[in-house]
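Thread: quick sanity check before group meeting

JM: Hey all, I'm pulling together slides for Thursday and realized we never actually wrote out the predicted structure for the chain we discussed last week. Dropping the sequence here so it's in one place. If anyone has concerns about the input, flag it before I start.
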Amino acid sequence: MELADQADALKDVLDALPGYDLVVIDAPPSLGPLTINVLSAADALIIPLQAEYYALEGLAGLMDTVERVRGTLNPQLRILGVALTMFDGRTNLAQEVEQSARGHFGELVFWSVIPRNVRLSEAPSFAKPIGAFAPLSAGAAAYKRLAEEVMQRVEKI
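JM (edit): ok, ran it. Output follows.
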């Protein structure tokens, strides 16, 4: 099955899901066939961006891939936003990554920033989302703000 056919099949399945207005797919950070398939079937993309140098470097490759997908498989694909993650505002690097992202993507960068947080790091080892593991943590509060911001943007689509 060709990649375009796979993307069409995934989109058909997603469109046919009863009772769902919104489906979020967490795709791997690699730019392999699975990610291409997800981008081909998606309406919008949220780009998580770690506040690290190499993550910023990798963003160029992702943007090239997004443009190729738009040009061949999914012309309607849009970027809903860029979410800064693992952010430590005490470091110059994190601040530089934020400035660079906001300079390049402007209003697409969400105002909600996900901090480096011990509780966020611990939650997966307990197989729980942060909202269940440590609902009062700074990380949980940051993800809640991000979710609200995402929903505001989705409503405008």
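AS: nice. The helical segments are 3-15, 33-41, 53-72, 92-105, 118-122, 130-133, 138-156. The mean pLDDT is 90.
JM: adding both to the slides.
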